[in-house]
Amino acid sequence: MSKHQIGYTVFGAFTLLYVYGYIVNGWSLLYYLSFFVLWFLLVVYGSFFIRSNYHLKAISKVKTQDNFVAITFDDGPTEYTEKVLDLLKKEHHKATFFCVGSRIENNPELTQRIISEHHLIGNHTYSHSKQMGFKSTKGVIEELSQTDQIIKSFTGAFPKYFRPPFGVTNPNIMRAIRKTKHKVIGWNIRSLDTVIEDEEKIFLRIKRQLKPGSIILLHDTSDKSIRVLERLLLYLNEINYRSITVEDLIKLES
Q1: What digits encode the pLDDT tens for the residues 191-222?
Q2: Model pTM?
Q3: How buried is residue 72: exposed, middle or buried, by Cβ count under 10 Å (0-12/13-18/19+)?
Q4: Which run of H or E residues covers position 124?
Q5: What residues contact residue 11 under an 8 Å CB cut-off, 6+ apart?
Q6: Confidence class for position 1, pLDDT limits 50, 70, 90
Q7: Which positions ≥6 away from 195 have C-beta within 8 Å?
Q8: Of 20, 43, 56, 193, which one's alpha carbon is 20 to 30 angstroms from that of 237?
Q9: Which region, left, alpha or beta, applies to residue 201 given φ > 0 means left and ψ of -120 to 50 means alpha?
Q10: Hey, is 240 helix, strand or coil?
């Protein structure tokens, strides 16, 4: 039973208890409203913070003593992906790209380069719609299946890994994943490179949280992120860390 199912069960049990208490003992409505607010806040937290594993299980870090991490990029491929690949090649690191299906179609050569240079491609839906959190289970499955087919046309195999846009999860996404059998990948270091403007703050945010087995979230969507990546790769080299694909990092689980 998932955490969200436990939450609904507890909420349902409390509702029944409250009804009994209201009828027999005249409990105040404030009791029920207070519990409802707490439950609602828990659902919101669980939906927007993928590491909570509230709706579904996501791999957000790996337990290992070895100096390996996984740098991941969301929302590509874009015009900036080539610069990312150049840096990774220059500094001899590997990464995982959670790609949007429609952008793969628009950037087939970059997609092929990601594959030929032995990086990993994961599913990041077809449209990366802001409405993804409101789609039905069928709608989510269609997004995933369409992107799976596109990725398979490049790699010859369906991708194993999926990251939901914005890290948002809900029961419909949970049911879709049960159907498609993807493994969900989160992160334990969110760079906030799409929000923070100061490159120094972004780099220090990553550096401060870095440890063996970390999964780092970046985006191949801006020059700012490229400059942060360059500093990060040099820092990893300096402290004798290596970035590998999510799949290879999972194999190190101790």
Answers
A1: 999 999 999 999 999 999 999 999 999 999 99
A2: 0.92
A3: buried
A4: none
A5: 35, 36, 39
A6: low
A7: none
A8: 193
A9: alpha
A10: coil
